[in-house]
Amino acid sequence: MNLLEFIDKGGIIVYILIFLNIIGFTIIIWKFTTLPQVNKTIAKIATRLDYNHSINAQIEYEIKKLETGLVIIKNIAIISPLLGLLGTVVGIYSSFEEITIKGLGDPTIFSGGIAVALITTIAGIIVSIPHQIAYNHFISLVDKIEIKAKKELVREECR
Q1: How far is it, in rounded angstroms, from Cα 76 to Cα 89?
Q2: Which residue among 4, 54, 100, 101 sits deepest, i.e. has the most Cβ atoms within 10 Å of its Cβ?
Q3: What is the domain range of residue 74?
Q4: What backbone torsions phi and psi does residue 112 show, to the nearest 5 degrees?
Q5: How many other C-beta atoms can be found within 10 angstroms of the C-beta atom of residue 151?
Q6: Does any domain span residue 106?
Q7: Does the pTM exceed 0.90?
């Protein structure tokens, strides 16, 4: 079975997972190109400080901007296995429907629904894993940027 047959056999749920995967990887690529520039980010935070307002509030504002898109990655990581599980339930249900209609005489009746169940489960897990890893990586990076920015600003205040 080639990839297109695999996808087609999984049905609408696999197409939804592919759509979510495209959205998620677009955000992941965008974040991989923008977030690692830690020193530029900290310098930008420092130049935007308005000392009439709270320094911590300004840092929080800048950090929230860095976190843009991360909730989408997290939600894709959480929703994907659930969609895979939904496909599993739909596949098994359709298998039992076929058995109810045609009986147990032909084992291929049961195998079609089980194939859908397994394909959607696999697809859900495949989509989820890289999104969860990317989300954890980016959150860790944003936390490091925030800590470094606060340390730099404390040094500036001490001067």
Answers
A1: 20
A2: 54
A3: 3-81+128-158
A4: -60, -45
A5: 11
A6: no
A7: no
